[in-house]
From TrEMBL:
Signal peptide: none annotated. PROSITE patterns: GATASE_TYPE_1. InterPro entries: Class_I_gatase-like, Peptidase_C26, PuuD-like. This is Gamma-glutamyl-gamma-aminobutyrate hydrolase family protein. It comes from the Bacteria. PANTHER family: GLUTAMINE AMIDOTRANSFERASE PB2B2.05-RELATED. The keyword Transmembrane helix does not apply. One of its GO terms (biological process) is polyamine catabolic process. GO terms for molecular function: gamma-glutamyl-gamma-aminobutyrate hydrolase activity. GO terms for cellular component: cytosol.
Amino acid sequence: MTTLQPIIGVAANERRDAGDDMGHMAISYNPSGYIKAVQLVGGLPIMIPIGDPMHAKRYTSMIDKLVLAGGQNVAPEFYGEVETIKSSDYNRERDAFEIALINEAIKQNKPIVGVCRGMQLVNVALGGSLNQQIQNHWQEKAMTQTSHDVLISKHSPLDSIYGRKAHVNSFHRQSLKQLAPQLEVIAKSLDDHIVEAVQSTDSNLRFLGVQWHPDFMYNVRDEDLAFFRYAVFNL
């Protein structure tokens, strides 16, 4: 008997101007690391483009698991704050649509994986908040290089993948501030104790989020590909 591949919905991003080489065309896209990693471990990825939140229920019904990728800052009005930094790096349409996907995934008992912004957005959707700007967590090194250490909780899913201490990459300017009631911290940065990973404590929600980018490292380090294998088959 052939086992069906899990269908992994990866929420997409948008660029309103793809640059001269694309004739300044707007595009919907997924960073290829998510797609390639899911394929390599045996999943079947599909892209879920930003759209009307009313369509989130139908999209979610078509997938087995939801992946929320990195990208723009989460707009502060979604966690009850006013903007305190000067930034144009927001996409409120994306925020609203992905929050609808999160809510539907919870209703339909579909596991959720959050990477960087994705982890932050789930925290916001569940009632938490963010630090709008932090220092020293956007590395100058290449994406496939690591820049700082994180300490991982014993017996957490990440412990079996990375061990108790891991060296990770870092590309974020926001971080978790108030933790949502349904979540627990399972990793923090060694130097400044920024939240680096969380998981759900609610039996009605299967969620794992990391602040670093295994999608940049899946093809250069076994642990980061193992993260996707766990996400596709074990979460």
